[in-house]
Amino acid sequence: MPTDETLDLLLKTNAQLEWDEEKQADFFTYIDGNDQKHLVWLEDSRSFKYKIDLAKAYQLGGIFIWYLGGEDPEIWKVI
Q1: Known InterPro entries for this protein (predicted)?
Q2: In the chain, what are the domain boundaries?
Q3: 17, 28, 55, 56: most buried by Cβ count inside 10 Å?
């Protein structure tokens, strides 16, 4: 889900954005109209920087972005 749609969902559901220290990523949970609980992860510049640093630490050849255009624009500042 693109970042803008994820943030819209966060606002629409009045969910609380949280940070998972172990996974180094933002997430939120909400319950839909059918009483189904959903867990949504959000990739932002802070979590993206962690993944870039991890790739560097393991001397990986690069990183992969699923598709361009749906990301948090702030990630380009950490690349």
Answers
A1: GH, Glyco_hydro18_cat
A2: 3-77
A3: 28
Q: How far apart are CA 62 and CA 52, in angstroms?
A: 9
Q: State pLDDT tens for residues 11-66.
A: 999 999 999 999 999 999 999 999 999 999 998 889 989 999 999 999 998 887 77
Q: Has domain 3-77 been given CATH number 3.10.50?
A: yes
Residue 41 or residue 69, greater confidence: 41
Secondary structure (3-state) at 51: helix
